[in-house]
Structure formats: C-alpha cells, structure tokens
Amino acid sequence: MRVAIAGAGAVGRSIAGELLENGHEVLLVDKAPTAISVERVPQAEWLLADACEITSLDEAALQRCNVVIAATGDDKVNLVVSLLAKTEYGVPRVVARVNNPKNEWLFNESWGVDVAVSTPRLMSALVEEAVSVGDLVRLLRFSHGDANLVELTLPEESALAGTQVGDVEWPEDTSLVTIIRGTRVLTPSRDDSLEPGDELLFVAAQAREEQLEDLLSVRREDTAS
C-alpha cells in the first residue's frame, strides 16, 4: 500500500516508521527544509514541497496513493490537503489530524476526510477509559455515516453480565467488534458470553450511544411481584 503523509514533524515521522515496519510504501511531504530529515526515516521517500499546492501533489503522484494522511500541526493545512486528496486525486482513504478540538466539526466528508483523529480528544478518552467502568468512552470518529468507535468496560452490576452475545438485542446501527478480556483480544461470536471487566469496543452511530450505554451499564430492576 502506498501512503503519502503531509507533515514530516514528529507525528508524521512516527506514523511513517510504523507503516514502513508493516511493509507499506511511504512518502513524506513537507515545505520546511528543516523538516526534511532523511536520516531519521531513511526507508521513506521524501519531498520538499507545499502539500497545499496542486503542482506539489502532482509531483507526489497522489493519484497512486491508497491513503493520504494530513498530519501537520496546522488544521487549515490538513483540511486543504484532505480536500485536494479526495476531490482532485480520488484517494480512497484520507485520514486527518485535528490539532484544535474546536475545529473537529469541520473534519468531515465535506472536506474529504474519512477519519479524523483528535490527539487531545484521544488522550482525554484514554484517561476516561482508565478510570471509568460502565461509562461509554468515544475513542475515534468516522466521518462517513456519523459513526464512532466507542469503548465501555462492563461493570459487575451490568444486566448483561453472563449473557451470550447472540442473545443481546443490540441497538440499531451498532456493532460489537472486539472484546478485550485481560490480555486476550476476542472476535465476538454469538456463543461468547459477556463477563464483568470485559472491554467492549463498538462501532456505533452517535445517536445510539446513550441507548447502548444504558443497555450495558444498568441492571434492570426485577419488576416481578
């Protein structure tokens, strides 16, 4: 897979290193000469150019990229790169870094963004995830379909503790994608049971998040007389 990364700072270089280790082809683009540090990621291609300019993106052969990552420290630049990648070059997957959470609402399909990654929001979510049991934590927002990757640690008092996955009536527009149990990562099957302490990862429509949290967190009162 060929990946172009706009922004060769610490974030861009770190992403490039991970992708190269996984066998992908990576191009780093930055307009600042001081950011071109070939010796730090020698396996990558490097291009000294302004990623907001069509001529630069032509030189980068963006049309051959499977993924473009807008990883600069400037939200305006990341939005422009995302829009150009999607509309001018038809890049199938565009991932954009959000530096200021106040700008997160802009990072959607109207600007060509498939996935927006907000570092402040993600760090906050990880803190919440570490201290919260029974609370839904939003980890990542997907622009298409208004869906989010959310996590909830199943509390002891959950009504669903001990219930098999296939017996749960999940809300519409939600999908249980992973169960993390201790050091194990489980792909859920209908016969798997939900156990207290399980970390459950869902892709869910934002409108269904409250319903999902209520389903997993609250033990229903026994109304039988």
From TrEMBL:
InterPro entries: K_uptake_TrkA, NAD(P)-bd_dom_sf, RCK_C, RCK_C_sf, RCK_N, Trk_Ktr_HKT_K-transport. The keyword Ion transport applies. PROSITE patterns: RCK_C, RCK_N. Residues 137-218 form the RCK C-terminal domain. Pfam families: TrkA_C (PF02080), TrkA_N (PF02254). Keywords: Ion transport, NAD, Potassium, Potassium transport, Transport. Gene3D superfamilies: NAD(P)-binding Rossmann-like Domain (3.40.50.720), Regulator of K+ conductance, C-terminal domain (3.30.70.1450). Residues 1-117 form the RCK N-terminal domain. This is Trk system potassium uptake protein TrkA.
